Amino acid sequence: MNATLQTWLAEQIQSLKDQHLYKKPRILDTPASGSVVMDGKNVVNLSSNNYLGLANHPKVRQAAMDALEKWGVGAGAVRWIGGTMRVHEELEERLAKFKHVEAVLVFTSGFTANSGCIPAVMTSDDVIISDELNHASIIDGVRLSAAEYRKSEGWVYAHNDMNQLEEILKRAGKFKKRMIVTDGVFSMDGDIAPLPEIVQLAEKYDALVMVDDAHASGVLGKNGAGTTSHFDLYGRVDIQLGTLSKALGVVGGYIAGSALLKEWLVNRGRPYLFSTALPPVTAAALIAALDIMETDPEPMRKLWENARWWKSELAKLGFDTMGSETPITPVYCGDEEKAVKLEKMLWDEGVYALSICYPTVPKGKARIRTMPSAAHTKEELARALDAFAKCGKTLGIIGEHATA
Length: 404
What we know:
CATH topology of the largest domain: Aspartate Aminotransferase, domain 2
Strand content: 5-15%
CATH superfamily of the largest domain: Type I PLP-dependent aspartate aminotransferase-like (Major domain)
Number of helices: 15
Shape: globular
């Protein structure tokens, strides 16, 4: 081992610990659900993206087992070489109908979908205009492209600020293509992008619109079809990204749009070109999850019932949930050390809820990010609420000793 590298790594890790930014993943000993065994401890899990409880749904599990017998465990190649199985094609056709678009291309993750699509579509003749709170995968996808994109030069607009977005669009006329990219639901705040206004501005200034619907899929719109469905903007959003690892409960990501877009990404989307195809059991499980989303309204109904109850009860206790409009429910702490302490205290009380600190969110805006889901019972959420009340008062986040 190179001594210089080892020394540098040790120093950097210690710096993270000193700033209360160090993370070490806990290990699940049971399937994903509302309550789990994690590191050998029974806890209410409020840090899962398993919105609809489909990660361990009997029908999804059975579909995966049936596909295992039929297709085996792996595709054996990247898609274009010979790894595209009929089940992959079926998944993409189903997703295209679900999203009301011409075509869908599936990637191995939402992250690779962003890093594959954005650089393939946007060139050195183009500019990308981005919300300041966009997900890291969008930012990395933008950085991988040759397009103009610098916050210092004013191509990033303040969060959901439509006036600033229009001012930027007025300056962007010299570029061949202008693309506005935004999260549909912002992953750390839980608010929804003003997509109708974004689309109107894009049409006014001849810009493209790309929406990352990772946290809107299964949550907003008809049967969970996302923000385009939620706002009835079919045909007016050029590129939609979705994940298959959150509400759908499995793994993967996709780009939804025109047939020509898919054809181009098949030829120039680098993560698609150089990554082995999703295992066929994954594709089959996803088709089963889609079946449930399209035919059974109960998981989505229960998700929203639990989310509304959770937000309401936290607010009654005096917690600041930062204006969240979706099941993503941040509990504001501000100080990084306080957020990390709250996470540890909640763990001791039998609740797993992760602290989110810089650089995931700006410094001084740390929070506990909670995710009520369809998999939670009211008893589990009530247990978690009691823990938040006890720990929040001890730390002075709520109650008569609370500090801003």
